[in-house]
Recover the amino acids of this structure.
């Protein structure tokens, strides 16, 4: 994902992406959002729903926050769809993550237009314009 979109998500969701620039020894978020810009809107929607859930969980359990809970641990494409991994899943978080993953299977990863899961072996989600040969 491009740096401008990455920076926006990190700024709007400081609890969720507290480890965005941490060492690879701490988190896989050090590599950023490992997906195309086409999934930005569905990712943004999920993140803005997750941020208050994670912030509330952090407020209830500050010690858990100190141990790395209530943060995203990785966001990437895998098997053609979005994978959004959290260090823990407070109530309501799993449903949001699952919905984003489901939407990614019908959204072109490159441009965000309607798409479908494609490929043999190496899967990807793309619209007609971004089908790989």
């Amino acid at each position: 994902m491009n740096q401008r979109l990455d920076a926006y998500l990190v700024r709007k969701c400081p609890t969720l992406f507290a480890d965005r620039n941490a060492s690879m020894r701490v988190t896989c978020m050090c590599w950023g959002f490992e997906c195309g810009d086409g999934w930005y809107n569905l990712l943004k929607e999920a993140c803005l729903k997750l941020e208050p859930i994670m912030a509330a969980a952090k407020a209830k359990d500050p010690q858990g926050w100190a141990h790395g809970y209530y943060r995203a641990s990785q966001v990437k494409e895998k098997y053609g769809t979005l994978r959004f991994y959290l260090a823990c899943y407070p109530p309501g978080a799993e449903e949001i993550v699952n919905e984003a993953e489901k939407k990614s299977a019908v959204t072109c990863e490159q441009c965000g237009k309607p798409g479908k899961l494609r490929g043999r072996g190496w899967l990807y989600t793309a619209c007609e314009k971004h089908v790989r040969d």
Observations:
- The longest strand covers residues 72-78.
- The two ends are 23 Å apart (CA to CA).
- The longest helix spans residues 40-60.
